[in-house]
Automatic annotation (TrEMBL):
Source organism of the structure: Capnocytophaga canimorsus
Keyword Metal-binding included in the entry's annotation: yes
Pfam family name, one: Helicase_C
Reaction catalyzed: Couples ATP hydrolysis with the unwinding of duplex DNA by translocating in the 3'-5' direction
UniProt record similarity statement: Belongs to the helicase family. RecQ subfamily.
Protein name, as recorded: ATP-dependent DNA helicase RecQ
SMART domains xrefs: HELICc
Gene Ontology molecular function, alphabetical: 3'-5' DNA helicase activity; DNA binding; four-way junction helicase activity; hydrolase activity; metal ion binding
Domain of life: Bacteria
Domain Helicase ATP-binding: residue ranges: 1-61
Keyword Magnesium listed: no
Keywords, ordered alphabetically: ATP-binding, DNA-binding, Helicase, Hydrolase, Isomerase, Metal-binding, Nucleotide-binding
EC number: 5.6.2.4
A Gene Ontology term for the protein's cellular component: cytoplasm
Length: 502
């Protein structure tokens, strides 16, 4: 038997289409009597049909099970105060959690923020070393930290059964991405939450970025030419040679938009022109350039660097003689300082010519799969570029429709997207909860508000989150209670019982 994994890559309509996968049809031609098994966990009906057609499996038997996850509550919240919602969700649901963001920088910043709010968090992205990834994974798997803030690099092979909450901080590019990442919650069968947080600004800016950064043939010609210039590749050469690629340096040198470059590289990779490996990593090094006595003299006038300098001198013997590889993450833990603080201090010490410092490099590698052919190569894939852009736009619009539709059960929407029609409402998603609350007695809401305010003063957002009623119902009940002088607002815009009422 011939087994093809991730078979959705065969389809032009799959989110991870790879032209190289089309070569799999050769297997059918070369071994016509050997059965072929094509496996995928994220194929719409259109993708399934495409796989069968492209692989020329006329008598294909399609075996599929339902994608329904009855224990996952798909909650989509449109809120202008995402940070408050994020904190409240993680404090209320104290089990293992994942927060997905779209950039490496955001993973670090959000993890640091959550750690200041009484939560335990670490971060994960493709630029970390294998050792760093393993350490952070172990911390989260063992429950030493509650929250893993991660890019979509975190996911492959993750099988932690007791994840209670998966939160999407940014809008994913496709429903396949969202469904796959949300599905990492509740694998033990117990109730879990898949939460999407967004606001009007994010919705509009995501749309603008998508349209602005779509990659056309003229830009691909420019990008391909600049890549060849950057690596100094002669015409007719460069095939299967690996190049270290400093992404930010490349964008700055040629004054190119980083997001557009990233999209262009993704498209060139999808067309098998090159491989863009973002996991390249080189460690930081520190080398003291002055003698021990000179260091002491310097610290007399600059005592704020004393602890950092002595840390390196104590822990890295020979650092005066040669550049020493240093683990900045361990330094931050040992010294209880932020990564940015240590980085800035090292840069300043280098400016003062006390040390030579080379920062961590977590950019990328690029491998070209064809000799340099300039415009001829780009024109050869031009037809595919148009189809690729159309497919990406269609998938993105499906994602936005999922956010916009607040009438139909979220679970039903997802299942329908993957070809499962005539399913029943889940009863636990954000839409189903609102539909239930539409029948809620306003007097019950008022009673619940008064019960909470007997304990402490609370803002409207705190009440909405604590009560889990629809926002409009809570606000209506608050207005009634205010008009009846049952409650009042204090100087912090919090509601409390009106003790002045006679």
């Amino acid at each position: 038997m011939i087994v093809i994994d991730e078979a959705h890559c065969i389809s032009h309509w799959g989110k991870d289409f790879r032209p190289a996968y089309l070569e799999c049809v050769w297997l059918k031609e070369e071994f016509p009597k050997i059965p072929i098994l094509a496996l995928t966990a994220s194929a719409t009906q259109r993708v399934q049909n495409d796989i069968v057609q492209l692989m020329q499996i006329n008598d294909a038997q399609v075996i599929k099970s339902s994608l329904k996850r009855s224990n996952i509550a798909y909650m989509v919240y449109k809120t202008e105060d995402k940070w408050r919602y994020l904190e409240q969700i993680l404090h209320k649901n104290t089990g293992s959690s994942i927060v997905y963001v779209r950039s490496r920088k955001s993973t670090v910043e959000m993890a640091e923020y959550l750690n200041t709010k009484g939560l335990t968090a670490t971060y994960f992205h493709g630029g970390l070393t294998t050792e760093q990834k393993s350490l952070k994974m172990q911390m989260w798997m063992l429950g030493d930290v509650q929250v893993m803030v991660a890019t979509n690099a975190f996911g492959m092979g993750i099988d932690k059964p007791d994840v209670r909450t998966v939160i999407h901080w940014d809008i994913p590019p496709t429903l396949e991405d969202y469904f796959q990442e949300a599905g990492r919650a509740g694998r033990d069968g117990k109730k879990a939450f898949a939460v999407m947080l967004y606001n009007d600004y994010q919705y509009q800016s995501t749309q603008k970025k998508f349209l602005l950064h779509q990659t056309d043939v003229p830009f691909l010609k420019l990008l391909y030419a600049k890549l060849n210039a950057y690596f100094q590749i002669a015409y007719g050469e460069g095939e299967e040679i690996v190049h270290h690629f400093q992404f930010s340096d490349f964008c700055m040198r040629y004054k190119l938009n980083p997001q557009q470059v990233a999209n262009g590289l993704a498209l060139l990779e999808a067309q098998s022109v090159l491989t863009f490996n973002q996991s390249y990593f080189s460690k930081a090094t520190v080398h003291f350039l002055v003698s021990g006595n000179q260091v002491i003299d310097y610290l007399k006038n600059n005592p704020k660097y004393k602890d950092l300098v002595f840390f390196f001198l104590r822990n890295y013997p020979g650092i005066h003689d040669q550049p020493m590889v240093v683990n900045l993450e361990k330094v931050t833990v040992k010294m209880n300082l932020s990564a940015d603080k240590i980085e800035n201090d090292l840069i300043q010490l280098q400016k003062e010519e006390i040390i030579a410092y080379r920062g961590e490099n977590n950019d990328a590698e690029i491998t070209f799969h064809f000799p340099r052919r300039d415009d001829a190569l780009i024109y050869s894939i031009a037809k595919n570029v148009k189809a690729y852009n159309q497919m990406k736009e269609m998938l993105f619009k499906q994602m936005l429709r999922f956010l916009d539709d607040d009438k139909k059960c979220k679970s039903q929407q997802l299942l329908a997207y993957f070809g499962e029609e005539n399913t029943q409402p889940c009863g636990i998603c954000s839409v189903c909860v609102v539909n239930k609350q539409a029948k809620t007695n306003i007097n019950l809401v008022k009673s619940d508000i008064l019960a909470l305010l007997q304990q402490k003063a609370m803002s409207s957002q705190d009440l909405i989150f604590a009560l889990e009623y629809q926002q409009t119902i809570v606000l209506e009940a608050l207005n009634i209670l205010l008009s009846m002088n049952e409650i009042r607002l204090n100087e912090f815009n919090e509601y409390l019982l009106d003790e002045r009422k006679s």
